[in-house]
Amino acid sequence: MKILAPSILSADFKKLGEEIAAVVDAGAQYIHIDVMDGIFVPSISFGMPVIKAVRDVTDKVFDVHLMISEPDRYIGDFAACGADIITVHAEACLHLDRTVEFIHSLGKKAGVALNPATGLGVLDYVLEKVDMVLLMSVNPGFGGQKYIPYCTQKIRQMRKMIEERGLNTRIEVDGGINLSTAEEVLEAGADILVAGSAVFGGEPARRTAEFVDLMRKY
Ligand code: DX5
Ligand code: ZN
């Protein structure tokens, strides 16, 4: 089943809890949480206290996307504040294998994210250990950017690699997803779609329902 993961980066932070409850009621299965440190990416978003504050709003999967340098420093904290999936960028990890093992040792699912220009080859040896691959389809750092077209081909190649190895690894695609780009991305083999501005830029519940409806066809 295809999964929608609304990114709260584009939510109205004045009423974050209510907005999360609204998208969950409308059918969102994951909540995508973008953590930015101002070093790995140009912007700073939010961190552990915010995640902890909204953890009791829902028991849906908290899909935490760490856009931070040397994420090992904080993985324990994110596990403790309620993350279910912890995704690190391959570009931010000197010892990716060790980081993936560390996330698993805390009883959490491990995701590895790749920037648009990063080749799939960095996953060659570690893929069997990874629960989810997050393919960025914009350069990370901000919501509301345009989908980079060459990413579709990358999603197809990732799907092929997973199938050839007979794995169950999920593919999440993040950046520039709206009701028009979603179909191309789903056809290419994505399992999980992140949508920030496309969900929270309008009426979040209605937008979520529209996505869920579209995704049912795949
Ligand atoms: C971008 C973040 C995304 C962002 C997506 O750096 O990783 O999750 O919220 O925003 P949209 O869907 O607006 O492109
Ligand atoms: Zn993200």
Automatic annotation (TrEMBL):
Its EC number is 5.1.3.1. It is an enzyme of class 5 (isomerase). Keywords: Isomerase. This is Ribulose-phosphate 3-epimerase. The lineage of its organism: Bacteria, Bacillati, Bacillota, Clostridia, Lachnospirales.
